[in-house]
Amino acid sequence: MTKKQLTEETVTEELMTEPDERDTAPVSNETPETATEGVTTTDTLEDERAEGGDDPTEDTTEDTTEDDADAEAETFPREYVEKLRKEAADARVKAKRADDLAARLHTALVAATGRLADPSDLPFDDAHLEDADALNAAVDALLARKPHLASRRPVGSIGQGATSPADRVSLAGILRHNAI
Questions:
Q1: Which of 7, 16, 106, 135 is the most exposed place for a label (fewest CB within 10 A)?
Q2: How far apart are the first and last CA of the chain?
Q3: pLDDT confidence of residue 103
Q4: Using one digit for the tens of pLDDT, what is the confidence trace for 39-52?
């Protein structure tokens, strides 16, 4: 025989060996006597099944039938479930609308202070809706951290735009005013 035929023959012999012989061989350097406890080989599982040991497939079928019985006992009529789902959907729509209105109110309150260029720069907080002092404190804190967000509207007379008509200037009026 050639070397190639010998290797093919040994490979064939290894493949032809029964699975029980391969499965029970220790994976590490341990012998079957020194193997750690709790390690189960195929042989021991087959022995337990033959002796009437616990079969995992039997447990799942019993649990499934118990779950089915529980599910049948806890089912509700379809109309009732649909009614509950509709009520929940309506509550979600109302909550969404309330959140939107609260956000708009918050933006309006911040704009009413006139201290920020863009009222949406202050993040929404429910406490600002109920307490004006909390709103002013939040605006103060934001402007302390980021002064560039302050409103830049001039206040008072800056000498531009429409003004009230001035008195007529006369030379005689100026002389009389200085004579006093």
A1: 16
A2: 143
A3: 94
A4: 545 555 555 555 55
Low-confidence ranges of the chain (pLDDT < 50): 21-25, 35-36, 38, 40, 53, 55
- Which residues contact residue 138 at a Cβ distance below 8 angstroms, ignoring those fewer than 6 apart? 122, 125, 128
Distance of CA 154 to the CA centre of its chain: 44
Question: What is the full DSSP assignment across the chain?
Answer: --HHHHHHHHHHHHHHS-HHHHHTS-SSS--TTTSPTT---HHHHHHHHHTT---HHHHHHHHHHHHHHHHHHT---HHHHHHHHHHHHHHHHHHHHHHHHHHHHHHHHHHHH--BSSGGGSPP-HHHHH-HHHHHHHHHHHHHH-GGGB-----S--S-S--PPPPPP-HHHHHHHHH-
| Residue 80: alpha-carbon gap to chain centroid | 31
